[in-house]
Structures are given as structure tokens and as C-alpha cells.
Specification:
One of its GO terms (molecular function) is ATP binding. By secondary structure, the protein is of the alpha/beta class. The strands form three sheets. The chain has a nine-stranded mixed beta sheet, with helices on both faces. A six-stranded mixed beta sheet has the order 15-16-20-17-18-19, with helices on both faces. The protein is built from 15 helices and 20 strands. The protein is globular and about 70 Å long. It has three domains: 11-99, Rossmann fold (3-Layer(aba) Sandwich), CATH 3.40.50; 103-304, UDP-N-acetylmuramoyl-L-alanine:D-glutamate ligase; 315-446, Protein-Tyrosine Phosphatase, Chain A (Alpha-Beta Complex), CATH 3.90.190.20.
Length: 448
């Protein structure tokens, strides 16, 4: 187990427990830091609270008393807690550092970190890079926003291991010294403005991924994204571009047949299992990192010819009598479904519907040209039916269960068709999570 080295704070307030807060509080305490934990919504009976208290950590629940700031050197907060929080707001005014737990990573003195961020595609790219390292027998750990508390992972890492970390704008906003040896910047769209308030502040948070990098580090970036091109002008890193639109001699690019790195052919496009233009960008980014690390084309090809996608994100499920089934249950909004529909040139039977959040679905209309049938469920059935009618789709079916939806979709399909679950809605009207919805879809497909 690694220990914190030269950590500059003797007393830390951990704000927000949940998974990362509880882990960080215990980690700091193990390393001799005095810890106070605070959570507004927790109660004394909560398992996390009792676990911390059993280890001698002071826990304050149900309120945010400003007195907690009187004798702390820093705050490490849950990434989702906004800066308008009364304690955070006052801490900023008092010039108390407000950090997120990824700021602990440099103090564990680990071998190397690859950090991936962007508005879309982080999880897929992070997973691809991880799989390439693993297949190359390179010691590697997965961490960050992908579900593994980064500082907790760092504490357990061995010498020569590389951390592959998915990093959100919320996490990156709370850093001071952290820097990845290889940073990956995928794309920038308008997102999380309820948290960051302005597009500029959102972009600034993302830019933190390379702000501490030097000429000894690498920045892999999307050369097709003008917002990114504007952002990286003052970067000190070695710049490695990727593009699906043009040849970038110092990076990774493609033509209609293959992907290349600095002029060297890496893999035929036809060999790649993962579909969609957005996934092509993720693949180009992952290849860039792999080639920087000297991973062979053979290893890259092995991963890309077998990797069917992250669970519930345009995930290939099964070929049933020539019909290809894809699980995109993570598509809980219209934008995600438009990307899924754009990924295919074949006829599509689209399974959609779910929680009604009050919005209409007109933005789907330009992407419905390949949809030959709609199978609808959930609260938004009638709204989506109108979109189907406006698109001239004759086969419009409404069902009550996912099992019915899959059976009906199969009946409406022919060989070479794609059956796509991409709901454009949250799942909470019928399922606890989008994962539960996706699992039910996959189970129904396997029972066909």
C-alpha cells in the first residue's frame, strides 16, 4: 500500500460522503491527516457515517455549520457539490483550498497517469485504452469517473503501474497540482451549464487537464473540434492530434479504408467492431495513446476486432438470424439517440420511450430516415408516436414490456436490419436505472 508523500494539509474537511467521500476520509486518516467529514443529507444511522466514526473520524450530518471552517487547511469535496454550497462559498472567500480527490494522486508518486476527458465518449475511450494496455501486458489500473475512486486506486497501485483515469469537469475543477502524463481531450459541447453556469467556465474546467503539463508530457486532442483548437493554443505539452476529417502528420487519422498513426497504417476500418462516427473519434484517441506508449499494431487490432462497446452504450448484443441487436440504454436524451441513429446505414427498428420530462422529440426528425419501424414503451409513447408519423413510418407499435418490445422488433425485422434500443428518455418510469433497462433488453434478446 502506497502512502501520501509531502501532503501539505494537516487537517482536512471532507464534504459529502457517498462513495468517494467515505473512501477519501478513510484514506486521509490512514495517512495521519486529521479528518472531519460533513454531509447535509446523511443521518447518524447511515452505514458510511458509522463506519467512519468507528475509525475515530468526526462526522457532522444534517447541517453545514460554518464553524467547520475555523481550523481546517483544505476541503476535499464530492465533485457534484456546487460551489454555491454555503461551506464552499465561505471557504473560497476565506482562501481555503477547495479540492477534489484526484488532487491526492500526485502525492502517491505513482508511475504514470493517463487522463481522459471530454463532453462525450470518455468511458468508451478510457475502457479502450485500458484494454490496449492490458492486452499488451503493461501493468495498468482503471480509475476515476468510470466508477473507481482514483485516490483509493492510487493507494493500492504497484510500482510501474499506469493509471487510466476518466475525469469529469467537476473533478478537474478541483485540482491544483495534479497532471496526467498523457492527457486526452475528446470534444467539447455545451454541457453541465447548470453547474458551471457559463460555457467559458465549463471549458476552463476541462482545460485543467493539461494546465500543469510540461514539455515532458503529451496532450492528445481532437483536431476536428474548433473549441479545442482554441483552448490548447497555450498548452506546454507535446501535442498529438487526431482527426477523422483530415491527415494530421503528427498524429492519428483515417481515410475510407484504414487508420494511420504518423503515416503508418495501424488497422483496416472494416476490421473494427465498434460502430458510429463518434466511436471512430474515441478509437483514434485510444490509438494515439497506445502508439505513444509503444503498444504494437497487433495488440491494437486484437482489441478493436473484439471490443463490442461499453455496457449499455451502443453495445453489440447478438446477431439473431442476420438481425444485429444493439443495446444503447444509456441514451437517456435526444442527443444520445441521434448519435446512435447516425451510426448505421442499414434499416433500423428503433425501440424507444421512457420517463416523460416534458420535452418534445422534434430534434429526432432529421435522423429518422433509416428507421423502418418504431416500437414504443413508457410514458412518452404518444409523443414518440407523433415523431414516427411525421417521419412517414408505417410500422408503429406500442408495448408494455421490454420482452414484448424485443419480440415485436424481431417480427418486424428482416435480415441485415439493425434492432436498436436507444430510448431517448430516462428509465425511471419503469426501471430503477438505465442499466436495469438495458439488462432486460439483452436478456430478452438472448431468449429469442
Amino acid at each position: 500500500m502506497r502512502v501520501l508523500k509531502e501532503f501539505p494539509f494537516a487537517k482536512v474537511l471532507v464534504l459529502g460522503l457517498a462513495k468517494s467521500g467515505t473512501a477519501v476520509a478513510k484514506l486521509l486518516s490512514r495517512n495521519g491527516v486529521k479528518v472531519i467529514a460533513n454531509d447535509l443529507k446523511a443521518s447518524e444511522d447511515d452505514e458510511n457515517v458509522q463506519s467512519l466514526q468507528s475509525q475515530g473520524i468526526s462526522v457532522i450530518v444534517g447541517e453545514h455549520p460554518l464553524s467547520l471552517l475555523e481550523d481546517v487547511d483544505a476541503i476535499i469535496k464530492n465533485p457534484g457539490i456546487p460551489y454555491e454550497n454555503i461551506l464552499i462559498d465561505q471557504a473560497v472567500k476565506n482562501r481555503i483550498p477547495v479540492l477534489t480527490e484526484i488532487e491526492l494522486i500526485p502525492y502517491f508518486d505513482i508511475n504514470q497517469t493517463v487522463g481522459i476527458t471530454g463532453s462525450n465518449g470518455k468511458t468508451t475511450t478510457t475502457t479502450l485504452i485500458y484494454e490496449m494496455f492490458k492486452k499488451a501486458d503493461s501493468p495498468v489500473s482503471l480509475a476515476g469517473n468510470i466508477g473507481h475512486v482514483a485516490s483509493e486506486v492510487a493507494e493500492q497501485m504497484h510500482d510501474k503501474q499506469t493509471m487510466i483515469a476518466e475525469l469529469s469537469s467537476f473533478q478537474l475543477l478541483g485540482i491544483s497540482t495534479f497532471k496526467p502524463n498523457i492527457a486526452v481531450l475528446l470534444n467539447l459541447f455545451e454541457a453541465h451549464l447548470d453547474y458551471h453556469h457559463t460555457l467559458e467556465q465549463y471549458h476552463n474546467a476541462k482545460a485543467n487537464i493539461f494546465k500543469n503539463q510540461t514539455e515532458h508530457d503529451y496532450l492528445v486532442y481532437n483536431a476536428d473540434d474548433q473549441r479545442i483548437l482554441n483552448m490548447i493554443k497555450n498548452a506546454s505539452s507535446n501535442l498529438v492530434p487526431f482527426s477523422r476529417k483530415e491527415v494530421v502528420s503528427n498524429g492519428t487519422y483515417c481515410d475510407e479504408k484504414a487508420i494511420y498513426f504518423r503515416g503508418e497504417k495501424v488497422i483496416e476500418l472494416a476490421s473494427i467492431v465498434l460502430v458510429g462516427e463518434h466511436n471512430l473519434e474515441n478509437i483514434l484517441a485510444a490509438i494515439s495513446v497506445a502508439k505513444i506508449e509503444g503498444i504494437s499494431n497487433q495488440v491494437i487490432e486484437t482489441v478493436l476486432t473484439t471490443f463490442t462497446g461499453v455496457s449499455h452504450r451502443l453495445q453489440f448484443v447478438k446477431d439473431v438470424n442476420g438481425r444485429k441487436f444493439y443495446n444503447d440504454s444509456k441514451a437517456t436524451n435526444i442527443l444520445a439517440t441521434t448519435k446512435a441513429l447516425s451510426a448505421f446505414n442499414q434499416p433500423i427498428i428503433l425501440l424507444a420511450g421512457g420517463l416523460d420530462r416534458g420535452n418534445e422529440f422534434d430534434d429526432l426528425l432529421p435522423y429518422m430516415s433509416n428507421v423502418k419501424a418504431l416500437v414504443l414503451f413508457g410514458e412518452t409513447t404518444q409523443k414518440l408516436r407523433k415523431i414516427g408519423e411525421a417521419s412517414g413510418i408505417e410500422n408503429l407499435e406500442m408495448v408494455d414490456t421490454m420482452k414484448e418490445a424485443v419480440q415485436k422488433a424481431y417480427q418486424l425485422s428482416n435480415e441485415e436490419d439493425v434492432v436498436l434500443l436507444s430510448p431517448a428518455c430516462a428509465s425511471w418510469d419503469q426501471y430503477k436505472t438505465f442499466e436495469e433497462r438495458g439488462n432486460m433488453f439483452m436478456e430478452s434478446v438472448h431468449k429469442l
